Amino acid sequence: MTATPDVTVVLAVYDTMPYLTECLDSLLAQTIGHERLEVVAVDDGSTDGSGEELDRYAAAHPDVVRVVHQENSGGPAGPNNVALGLARGRWVHFVGADDYLGPEALERMVAHGDAHGADVVIGRMEGMGGRYVPQALYGRDHVDVDPFGPHLRWTVANSKMFRRAHVEDLGLRYREDMRIGSDQPFTIRACLAARRIAVVGTYPCYYAVRREDRSNVTYSVDVVTRAQATEKMMAAVAEVMPSPEQRDHYLVRHFTWEVQRLLPADQLAGWTAEQREQGCAAVGGLVERWYTPAIDAALGVRPRVRLRLAAAGEVEEVLALDAVEAAGGPRVLLEDDGAFLGYPAFRTAAAARAGLTDDDFALTPVATAKRVRDGLAVGEVAWSGDLLTADVRLPALAPPAHEHLSAWLRPAGKESDDRAQRLPGTVGPAPDQAAADTDWVRLVVPRGEAEPEGWRLFLGGRSVTGGWEVRVPLPTPRDTGTAGSQGSSATPGGREILGRLARRLTGRHPDGR
Description:
By secondary structure, this protein is an alpha+beta fold. The chain contains 17 helices and 18 strands.
């Protein structure tokens, strides 16, 4: 190892078999070539054979793999610092020893970073084994990511490539007093001081793996240790922020993710009363120190309500909220003055004790429309004379939804033009549905001079928070000449209208013309 490699991959390793083997194989298969690559792996006192596996690869590839063995330090910060001190590459990429890279990852990232003079390069990440990875930053290759834009705060792990001169100029090292989260202040400082942050967003560079036994250190620590680490993490992030507004911008992420994990939704029901009390106390302490009105306003309804219930010690309400989410989420309550998520705590004494008002459960028009659209199902549709009748199922809305909904037809291609002609209709209960199924409503819109191939059907509501709407898709007519299962060919005029609609949707008239 005499020439300076283009990139050093750093592996902090502790008991990561058998995932370590796939990780090492992915590194040695990189298209950047062995002559441009070095791997520095620090075995942090592994007991599962990970150290021996590293030695086996180092013996087989002495030109690429370098291994250091040390006693266990209690977290990844120490081994990362040791490896960083040994790194020789122009770039350094930190890789979790249970994760792996796409074959072209390093070649593409080095080329992208060099071409654009970047100090930090982020490769597109994908989650494996149920691990969640935000995707908003990806989809295209781009440069000049704003550290205070909407996306970077959600991806502040160290699983990126850093220009090593940039790291050394800043004197960056990991905080060894943090068992988890030590990569966040490291990454954020590097990004804040970077000349340019570039993204390889079109190629899957990094595969983040959630182990089947959930033994990743991020998931396995107890609530007290996690609470202490979360406090240090948030304090360390706050220290590097230039202003309170920018601090709050990043802490939104922590109150959405890290603080919520102090009461993990998939484990809380099985906890003892003492564990639940510890979790609520930990959440309450972080809320008291760091929570601000700006953070509260930036959170979605679910994280806001859950967080404040937990901080108030209302653990039974937190459990009820989690149960509703596990069952598919709460229904939307439509009222004249707004739309609200109908969690069990809505308008209860527990909510009042947590300081929660109706406004804290309120959905924006955009969020309301999304929930309606995601659950909307179209049943029977029929043109009969001058009336369009459509039955629509709305499982996301609490009945009786029809009291707060409107329907209308609008010319195609002018969905965003408020001046476009609208033909208003009515929304009521669907009489043909079973009485027990209250999700169905019936839309009735007079056709007037509208031709079905030139108009679109909409459903929506209006409240003091603003109007919202969703387009109701019209199903493809069946070969029998009906739309849905209604006999809309009762009149010659109705059949001709249906024929034009069929040709637009399928390119074929119901009778073959």
